[in-house]
Amino acid sequence: MRMPNDFLSFFLSWMSSPRRVGAVAPSGAALADLITREISASTGPILELGPGTGAFTYKLLKRGVRPQDLTLIEYGSDFMKLLQVRFPGARVLWMDAARLTTERLYEGSPVGAVVSGLPLLNMSRRKVISILSGAFSYVRPGGAFYQFTYGMSCPVPRPVLDRLSLRAKLVDRALLNVPPAAVYRLTRRPQMKLITGSPALEPSKRIALEPTHHARDHSAAR
Question: If DSSP states are collapsed to H, E and C, what string results for the chain?
Fold first, then answer.
């Protein structure tokens, strides 16, 4: 259960750094249900970015995710001790999510899902690219990145999706959340196999072309 001082913690953090925190209150139950809806115990290791007071983390545990399969990346020092106390079995790291490209959190790419509570709309495009490319370097094939937003469209602009070869799909909207929010699922685009060179004509097709070519030559000779 969420502790009664969560709202105060969030509000004070937002007052001190509104662009970094991005919300004046913890995410509600409706949004936590939605952003974790497609995740289960079989999803495997989960990377959570910007967990704050742990609203999504609680729901992940209720979905059957093991504490030892959770890695929480939090930049707000005021939330760190709270997360460590509430989720002693999880790995809690104090770091900027934009540094995911320079840190090696896993061996290989075992992560089944990334759950993000980061305020991407408040960030520069360069930072968003660093966060997404770093996160997807740990995501196994078929894995997904779940991002919520208070906006009306995907918080990751199309040029960024194109650059990183990602696609975004609306999962649903949590209209009961305050304020209402939406969740998007980001996944890798299917890789197209390029065929270099032009295929050689089959012998039968080359023979079929020859009479037409000779006919043009004979008619020209006349």
Answer: CCCCCHHHHHHHHHHHCHHHHCCCCCCCHHHHHHHCCCCCHHHCCEEEECCCCCHHHHHHHHCCCCHHHEEEEECCHHHHHHHHHHCCCCEEEECCHHHCCCCCCCCCCCEEEEEECCCHHHCCHHHHHHHHHHHHCCEEEEEEEEEEECCCCCCCCHHHHHHCCEEEEEEEEECCCCCCEEEEEEEECCCCCCCCCCCCCCHHHHHHHHHHHHHHHHHHHC
